[in-house]
Specification:
With 675 residues, this protein is α+β, with helices and mostly antiparallel strands. Helix content is 22%, strand content 25%.
Length: 675
C-alpha cells in the first residue's frame, strides 16, 4: 500500500522479532506517557520488559507497530491519511500468523476511548473481517476494517477497487459484519452508485474512487492501467461517471442513459461526466448533446481529466495532457430553450476574464458590439448575436498544443475589429498564457457543414506514404446527397472558386473534399462505424484543385520506428497515393516522435470548408515529395520538398532553398509565439 502524497508503504512495517515479544500486560492506559500526543505510547510489556506494541501519533491517525522506532515510511503514510470525524483511525502492523495472545496485545495497544475504530492493516492479510469482529467484541466498540489492499486516493483517502478486495467491512459488537463502502472517507453519494462491477446493457459499470466507470465488457490488455489511472481522480461532492476506454468504440448512449436513469433524481444535477473514450458518436455528434436529448435533462461534462484545481486534456492513450482553461460544460436538451440549442456552454473555466461583465454562461462583454465566449477549444470573439454556425464552434475539441482564440468572420467588415479586440485581450494575459494561445479565424459555412475539429496530426503509413488524416471528430453522416448539397451551397457563397458554381464536376469535387475532411480513421486505417468512407481519388484531386494554394512551410508529427526512419533516409522521392495532411503552423506538440517538415508548392488550404481548422493544408493524392538532407541544426526531422506539377524532381537549387526556409520555419515554430 502506498501513501497518497508521500510514497509511504505501510506494508513495509516490520513484525516483532519473536513470539516472546508479545506476552505481557501493558502499563495503565491513563498514564502521562500514554496520553502524550506526537510521541510513542507504550502499549504492552513483553517478557523481557519491553512493549509488545507501540502506538505513535501520526497526523490524524495512530500507527501501532512493533517495539522500537517507528518505520519513517509507515509514519509518513499514516500521517498522510485523511481525518475520520466518526472513527479513531489506526494503521496496524499485524503479522499474518497472529494468534489470540497477539490479538490481545493489539487490543491493549488501542488508544482508550469509546468511539468507533477504523483499521488499516499494514500488510495484506486474510481473515480481516474475523479480526475486526474479535476486536469489536473485545473492546465493545464498532470496528471498520479494510478487507483488501487499498489504493491511495486524493486528499489522503483510500479506495479498495473490486479487483483488490471486498472493501471496508463494519463490525458492531453482538452483530455480524456488514459491507460498509469501498471509499474512505465515504462521500455522501456513496450508497447510490454500484459498489461492484455489474452489467449495464452491453457495457459494464465498475466503481472507481471518484464515482463509477462505464466501460465495454471484457478485460483488455490495458484495462488495469486505465483502472489505476482512473482510481487517482479526485473524490468530491460531485459523483463522476467516466465513460469509455481509449481506442475502443464509443459506448451506446442507451447504456449511459440507463445509468443516469438509475440514479435518484436528487443526485443527477451533481453528476459530472468524463469522456475517457471517444466523445463523438458514429454520426459525429458529441455524447453530451445526444445524452441530454435522450434523458431530457441538462448534463454536465468535464472537458478532460479533473485534477487538483485543473482539468487536463485526455490524450489518445488516455494519459493526461496539457491543462485546459475551459473546464466544465453543460449540454441542454432541445426542449430546454427556444430555437437552436445553445449547448454546450461553459460553467467552469480558468480564463482571466474576471474584469469583464458576464452576459451569459461563460460569455463576457468585450465591447459594445462584441463578446468573448469560453468554448471547448479556447475563446470565441464574436458579435452579441449567435451566428448560424454557433453550434459548430462550440463543438470544437481542444487541440493538443495550444488554446485557440477564434475571431468570428460572420461579417467580414467586423473581422478586423474582432482581431484587434482579441489581440488587446491577449495582451492583458500573463506572459505564460500569452505563449499558450493562438489566434485563428472562424468563417461562416453552409448549414450542416461537418462539426468543428482540431487540426489533425497524422502518422505515416508503412509503404512510404507520409500521412493520413486523423480528425478528432466525424461529420454528421448525411450521406452522399448531403455532401453534394453542402458543396453546392459553398460554391454559391464563394464564386471565386469556380467560374460556374453549378458545374456538376465542381460540386462533386468539393463534396469529395468534404467527405475527406469528415473521415475519422481508426489507428489501423479503417473508418469508424457510420462515418463516410474514403472519397474517390480523382474526385478528391478535382475538388482540391479548386481551393487556394498554400506555398510555404508546413509540418506534421508522426511516430516512426527505426525501420521507417531508415526507409525514409534511403528514398530520394516519395509518392503519396492518398491526400497527405499537414499544418501551416508546424507539427505542433501532439503524439509522435518525429517532425515532418514539408515545403509546399501545390498544397491546398481548406479553411473555406472547415473554418475551425484554418491552418490545415492538404496535398493532392499522388503528390510527389523529394526527401532532403536537413542540416546539423535540425536534428531528428524528416525534411521534404513538394515537387510541383511540371517540375523536375532533382533540382539542387530548389533543394537548398527549401532546406533553408524549412529550417527557419522550424526554429520559429519551436521558439516563438505565433499567436
Amino acid at each position: 500500500m502506498s501513501g497518497s502524497q508521500t510514497g509511504a508503504r505501510a506494508g513495509t512495517l516490520t513484525a516483532p522479532s519473536s513470539p516472546d515479544a508479545r506476552r505481557a500486560p501493558r502499563p495503565p492506559a491513563g498514564s502521562a506517557t500514554a496520553r502524550r500526543t506526537g510521541s510513542p505510547r507504550p502499549a504492552g510489556q513483553a517478557d523481557g520488559g519491553g512493549p509488545a506494541f507501540t502506538a505513535h501519533r501520526a497526523g490524524a491517525a495512530w500507527l501501532i507497530s512493533p517495539p522500537g522506532p517507528a518505520d519513517p515510511r509507515a509514519l509518513s503514510f499514516a500521517a498522510g491519511l485523511a481525518s475520520d470525524p466518526e472513527c479513531t483511525l489506526l494503521v496496524v502492523d499485524l503479522p499474518e500468523e497472529a494468534d489470540d495472545r497477539t490479538l490481545e496485545e493489539l487490543a491493549r495497544a488501542v488508544p482508550p476511548g469509546r468511539g468507533d475504530l477504523r483499521l488499516v492493516f499494514g500488510r495484506p492479510r486474510t481473515g480481516v473481517a474475523g479480526t475486526a469482529r474479535w476486536l469489536a467484541e473485545r473492546l465493545g466498540r464498532t470496528v471498520t476494517a479494510a478487507d483488501g489492499t487499498p489504493l491511495p486516493a486524493s486528499g489522503g483517502g483510500l479506495f479498495i477497487g473490486a479487483d483488490r478486495g471486498a472493501g471496508w467491512v463494519r463490525c458492531v459488537p453482538g452483530a455480524p459484519e456488514e459491507p460498509d463502502s469501498r471509499r474512505f472517507p465515504k462521500p455522501t453519494w456513496d450508497s447510490v452508485l454500484p459498489d461492484r462491477p455489474r452489467p449495464l446493457g452491453t457495457a459494464v459499470v465498475e466503481p472507481v474512487a471518484a464515482g463509477v466507470w462505464l466501460r465495454p465488457a471484457g478485460e483488455g490488455a490495458l484495462r488495469d492501467a486505465h483502472r489505476a489511472r482512473l482510481s487517482t481522480l479526485p473524490v468530491s461532492a460531485e459523483p463522476l461517471v467516466v465513460v469509455g476506454v481509449p481506442g475502443a468504440p464509443a459506448l451506446p448512449v442507451a447504456d449511459v442513459a440507463r445509468l443516469w436513469q438509475s440514479l435518484p433524481p436528487r443526485i443527477r444535477p451533481a453528476v459530472r461526466f468524463l469522456c475517457y473514450g471517444p466523445a463523438r458518436l458514429s454520426g459525429g455528434r458529441h455524447l453530451g448533446d445526444v445524452l441530454a436529448q435522450v434523458v431530457g435533462e441538462p448534463v454536465r461534462l468535464y472537458n478532460g481529466l479533473p485534477g487538483d484545481g485543473e482539468v487536463l486534456r485526455v490524450e489518445a492513450d488516455g494519459s493526461p495532457g496539457r491543462p485546459l482553461l475551459g473546464q466544465q460544460f453543460v449540454h441542454l436538451p432541445p426542449a430546454a430553450s427556444a430555437g437552436p440549442s445553445p449547448s454546450p456552454h461553459a460553467v467552469a473555466h480558468r480564463w482571466p476574464l474576471d474584469g469583464l461583465e458576464e452576459t451569459g454562461p461563460g460569455t463576457y462583454l468585450l465591447a459594445e458590439d462584441a463578446v468573448v465566449e469560453v468554448v471547448r477549444s479556447g475563446l470565441w470573439v464574436r458579435g452579441p448575436q449567435d451566428p448560424p454556425y454557433a453550434a459548430e464552434v462550440r463543438a470544437g475539441d481542444p487541440e493538443p498544443g495550444r488554446e485557440r482564440i477564434l475571431c468570428d468572420a460572420h461579417s467580414e467588415e467586423a473581422l478586423p475589429r474582432f482581431r484587434q479586440l482579441a489581440a488587446d485581450l491577449v495582451g492583458t494575459f500573463p506572459p505564460e498564457l500569452r505563449r499558450a494561445v493562438r489566434l485563428g479565424v472562424c468563417r461562416p459555412t453552409a448549414p450542416a457543414v461537418p462539426a468543428g475539429r482540431a487540426p489533425a496530426r497524422p502518422a505515416p503509413r508503412p509503404g512510404g506514404r507520409t500521412g493520413e488524416a486523423r480528425s478528432h471528430t466525424a461529420a454528421p453522416d448525411t450521406g452522399h446527397e448531403g455532401f453534394l448539397s453542402v458543396a453546392a451551397e459553398i460554391l454559391r457563397r464563394h464564386p471565386e472558386l469556380t467560374p460556374d458554381p453549378h458545374d456538376p464536376d465542381a460540386v462533386t469535387g468539393v463534396a469529395a473534399v468534404l467527405r475527406r475532411l469528415a473521415r475519422t480513421p481508426e489507428p489501423d486505417g479503417t473508418g469508424t462505424d457510420g462515418t463516410p468512407g474514403p472519397p474517390d481519388a480523382g474526385l478528391l484531386r478535382a475538388g482540391l484543385r479548386l481551393l487556394p494554394v498554400h506555398r510555404g512551410a508546413t509540418g506534421l508529427r508522426a511516430t516512426l520506428d527505426e525501420a521507417m526512419r531508415q526507409w525514409y533516409a534511403g528514398q530520394p522521392l516519395v509518392i503519396d497515393a492518398d491526400a497527405c495532411e499537414a499544418s501551416a503552423v508546424g507539427p505542433g506538440t501532439g503524439p509522435g516522435n518525429t517532425d515532418f517538415l514539408i515545403w509546399s508548392v501545390d498544397g491546398r488550404r481548406t479553411d473555406l470548408l472547415d473554418p475551425l481548422s484554418p491552418d490545415r493544408v492538404l496535398f493532392l493524392p499522388g503528390s510527389r515529395f523529394r526527401v532532403l538532407s536537413p542540416g546539423p541544426g535540425v536534428p531528428g526531422v524528416v525534411m521534404m520538398r513538394e515537387v510541383g506539377p511540371g517540375e523536375a524532381a532533382q533540382d539542387a537549387e530548389l533543394d537548398r532553398a527549401a532546406v533553408r526556409e524549412l529550417t527557419r520555419a522550424w526554429r520559429d515554430w519551436r521558439g516563438g509565439d505565433h499567436a
